[in-house]
Design a protein that fits this description.
Blueprint lengths: L1 H16 L3 H6 L4 H25 L8 H4 L7 H26 L12 H24 L1
Length: 137
């Protein structure tokens, strides 16, 4: 349960708090903006994992061993970078077109911009939890 909470919070910080307006507004049009966003996102994961592996027990937090992480777990940010880039490449372009056409909400099976944003988040969480499961458990 602790690991799930940590993954959710880190994702929120990396994907929303650390994403600049320039990244958010331009990742659907500019590969450079998209890569900048996914690099910052993945760097956040790397720094958190590195922090847990080095300093976790010094600050009373969970250590890498307690969380099931090992040194080869640094694959997590790389895998996350690739999948986050592919996901955002597709979903940001669809969302951008939906906003341009003022299609904010729609009833299934037609999706509006906010439904696509929600799907984007579902795909990110699925990747994060699956990657964690495959690498750490």
């Amino acid at each position: 349960m602790l690991v799930a909470f940590i993954i959710i919070v880190i994702h929120w910080i990396a994907d929303f708090v650390l994403q600049t307006e320039d990244m958010a507004m331009n990742k659907s049009k500019s590969f450079k903006a998209l890569i900048k966003h996914t690099f910052v996102y993945s760097l956040c994961w790397y720094l958190v994992l590195f922090g847990f592996s080095v300093w976790g027990n010094h600050f009373g937090g969970p250590t890498s061993k307690e969380l099931g992480w090992s040194s080869w777990m640094m694959l997590f940010p790389l895998i996350t970078f690739v999948f986050h880039t592919v996901t955002d490449y597709v979903t940001s372009r669809i969302t951008s077109k939906k906003f341009e056409n003022k299609q904010y909400y729609a009833v299934f099976p037609k999706l509006g911009a906010f439904s696509v944003i929600g799907l984007d988040q579902v795909l990110h969480y699925a990747q994060l939890f699956l990657t964690y499961h495959l690498l750490c458990l």
